[in-house]
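To the wet lab folks,

You asked to see what we're planning to order before we commit. Fair enough. Below is the target structure as tokens, and below that is the sequence we designed to fit it. If anything looks off to you, flag it before the synthesis order goes out.
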């Protein structure tokens, strides 16, 4: 239930931002992919000084996460998803190396550190990575700061194959679909042969507000990139992932894909 309450807050926040700039939003002139990628990079990198970005990046104690149980709930839920998936595969939930794409304030890794030796966090915000490191500790956490224009540069930091890949509440903030596909392909190359993956997107449900956006990143970042379920399973297939099952959360249009490397 707290998860639904969060999303309701997110939607109303979006609507507030959008209505402030109604005249601009109304134009909806598609912008170039390079412009959108630059705007996305600038938005998330602004976490040092911008309290909205800090809350959106799930920093512990910021905004709605002043209620610590809300912050803990995110990681606990995804921890359960990972351990349930391991059980489904008949495996022990214990990992040598976890890679989370977009760890934000570290709610997921804070829980996953109990079942992993090394934790890699790939993010585009140096300040957010510092906050995440503060939650996890430098002994197990490896910050992987990337240039948003070069997602493949995460390999400069990740020097081993990883057996668990997690990305939640991140792909919906990507600037375009091709960026998502490129990230999935690059990550697949560093997965162990039996790696497990928990990948979340927002799925399109036909409503306008969930449709793929093509302009005004900073006003529409909450639900910028979305995929149909079948569309995303095909993308995963082409990027060398096998989808075992998909879990849907209709209130938020969240789809969780439980995969292994093919
Ligand atoms: C909403 S937070 C998600 C935090 C965490 N995964 C969770 O579920 O609580 C989004 C995070 O993704 C990061 N991010 C945004 N675009 C990114 C990109 N292109 N590559 C890596 N991280 C990105 C942001 O800086 C932020 O830390």
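Sequence we intend to order:
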């Amino acid at each position: 239930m707290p998860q639904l309450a969060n999303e309701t807050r997110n939607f109303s926040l979006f609507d507030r931002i959008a209505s402030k700039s109604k005249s601009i939003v109304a134009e909806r002139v598609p912008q170039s992919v390079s412009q959108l990628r630059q705007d996305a990079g600038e938005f998330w990198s602004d976490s040092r000084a911008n309290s909205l970005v800090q809350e959106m990046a799930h920093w512990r104690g910021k905004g709605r996460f002043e209620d610590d149980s809300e912050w803990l709930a995110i990681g606990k839920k995804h921890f359960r998803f990972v351990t349930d998936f391991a059980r489904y595969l008949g495996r022990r939930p214990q990992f040598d190396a976890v890679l989370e794409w977009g760890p934000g304030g570290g709610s997921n890794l804070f829980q996953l550190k109990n079942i992993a030796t090394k934790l890699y966090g790939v993010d585009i915000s140096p300040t957010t990575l510092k906050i995440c490191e503060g939650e996890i500790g430098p002994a197990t956490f490896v910050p992987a700061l990337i240039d948003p224009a070069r997602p493949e540069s995460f390999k400069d930091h990740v020097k081993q194959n990883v057996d668990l890949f997690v990305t939640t509440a991140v792909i919906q903030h990507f600037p375009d679909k091709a960026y998502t596909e490129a990230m999935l392909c690059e990550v697949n190359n560093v997965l162990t042969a039996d790696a497990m993956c928990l990948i979340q997107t927002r799925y399109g449900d036909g409503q306008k507000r969930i449709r793929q956006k093509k302009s005004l990143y900073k006003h529409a970042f909450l639900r910028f990139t979305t995929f149909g379920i079948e569309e995303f399973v095909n993308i995963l297939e082409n990027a060398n992932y096998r989808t075992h099952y998909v879990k849907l959360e209709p209130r938020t249009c969240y789809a969780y894909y439980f995969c292994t490397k093919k």
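Structural context that might help your review: Residues 40, 44, 56-58, 74, 101-104, 107-108, 122-125, 128, 148, 168-170, 173-174 surround S-adenosylmethionine (CB under 6 Å). Residues 2-261 form a domain with the Rossmann fold fold (CATH 3.40.50.150).

Thanks,
Computational group
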